[in-house]
Design brief:
It contains 13 helices and four strands. It has 395 residues and is mainly α. A hairpin with a 2-residue loop joins strand 3 and strand 4.
């Protein structure tokens, strides 16, 4: 049900000689008769022998990934939740009327229904992701720890704990946010509203995006060749440069004096080794997150389908038929148009929706300063109270 960029991926659980579990998007490797010696000058980065992993080593790996926000820190699932909602909602909306070729983002009602579906997803997504955060973080940290030496992680932490490293983290997070927004808009088939930039401006934006993690892992991580729609690919960088030009120009102005230092660190031995060691961890994290997102989307559609269809309303179908008749040497053409509108009486789902919209408006006027988690819980309670009044099951 997810878009192609987030397709369901197989996850393999491998057990090493010490009994530790490793999660990956690749089949488990067969035991090697012998491993290359550590530090072998002829071995490539991606072919180094796996590093022995203990609790302290894995904790250090987790600390680096969380500092760079490449994995979610406990209690900070908000950004991941918002991204999950933005990615799966368009597909769910399309499923409300999949046979209708006019039911696309260009339909006048599409974005109204899309926001309604998103509001339901937001009520459930954080609790659904919270249960999986530990598993995905643990898998990513273990994968990274297997490919990074302790001295390499120490060097990375020294940099990240410096003032320049703090600025690097902030820059990467702001750039990632812009890239995600561009990708979400692309997946939602939203039109590009900005004017066509000049070649000089477009190149500058693409060079700025090339400093980001998506591009660096794609270029320096040593992973599989990217498809044209994968984050970090040339096509996606150009799309982001077109869609989010204003945001990128603002970011460039803010960091113009620091860009040389950021580019220098990206080319340093510490960064190069990090990109190679962490790339398998990010692929594992992405595969697990895609699986979790697909399961969440499937569950939500099963639970909410009738409610969403009631909000969308019965589709109007029209067809035309032309009949040509010849009688007594006279030819006549008759065109008839048929409209099928299966409206019927107001359903219980529709009545519950009206109740919810009325009560939610009143609730928002009184509790508009409430924390987001408490506010979403309040909306969920209103939703199920209104459903109970119509003898509908809770959601």
């Amino acid at each position: 049900m997810l878009l192609a960029a987030n397709s369901h991926a197989a996850i393999f659980r491998c057990v090493d000689a010490s009994g530790a579990n490793t999660y990956s998007d690749k089949p488990c490797a067969s035991p090697e008769p012998s491993a290359p010696a550590a530090g072998n000058p002829t071995a490539k980065h991606g072919e180094d022998a796996p590093v022995a992993v203990d609790g302290a080593h894995e904790a250090k790996a987790a600390k680096i990934l969380q500092a760079l926000q490449l994995t979610s820190a406990p209690g900070t699932e908000g950004a991941r939740a918002l991204r999950t909602v933005n990615l799966i909602a368009p597909d769910l909306v399309k499923q409300l009327d999949p046979a209708n070729p006019a039911w696309t983002p260009q339909h006048p009602k599409w974005h109204v229904v899309l926001e309604f579906v998103k509001s339901d997803l937001r009520k459930d997504v954080e609790s659904a992701l919270r249960a999986s955060t530990f598993r995905t973080n643990q898998a990513a940290a273990h994968e990274y720890a297997q490919h990074a030496k302790d001295s390499e992680m120490d060097a990375m932490l020294v940099y990240l704990n410096s003032s320049e490293g703090a600025r690097y983290i902030t820059f990467q997070n702001e750039l990632k946010s812009i890239s995600n927004q561009a990708l979400d808009s692309l997946m939602a088939q939203e039109p590009i509203t900005e004017d066509e930039p000049t070649e000089i401006v477009l190149k500058r934006r693409q060079q700025l995006l090339a400093l980001g993690f998506d591009s660096r892992f794609a270029t320096d991580g040593g992973g599989p060749t990217l498809g044209p729609s994968a984050p970090g690919s040339a096509a996606i960088l150009k799309n982001a440069a077109r869609r989010e030009g204003t945001a990128l120009d603002t970011l460039y102005s803010e960091y113009e004096g620091y860009i040389p230092a950021i580019a220098t660190f990206n080319q340093s031995a510490t960064a190069k080794r990090f990109f190679v060691a962490a790339e398998p961890a990010l692929r594992t994290n992405t595969a697990l997150s895609s699986e979790i997102g697909a399961n969440f989307a499937s569950t939500e559609f099963t639970d909410y389908e009738q409610r969403w269809r009631a909000y969308y309303g019965p589709p109007v179908r029209s067809s035309a038929r032309t009949v040509t008749m010849q009688r007594a040497g006279t030819t006549s053409v008759v065109t008839s148009r048929y409209v099928n509108y299966n409206g019927g009486q107001m359903t219980r789902e529709s009545a519950a929706l009206q109740c919810e919209q009325r009560e939610t408006a009143a609730y928002g006027r009184v509790h508009h300063f409430a924390a987001d988690g408490n506010y979403q819980a309040g909306l969920k309670a209103i939703q199920n109270t209104c459903r109970a009044e119509q003898n509908l099951p809770p959601l």
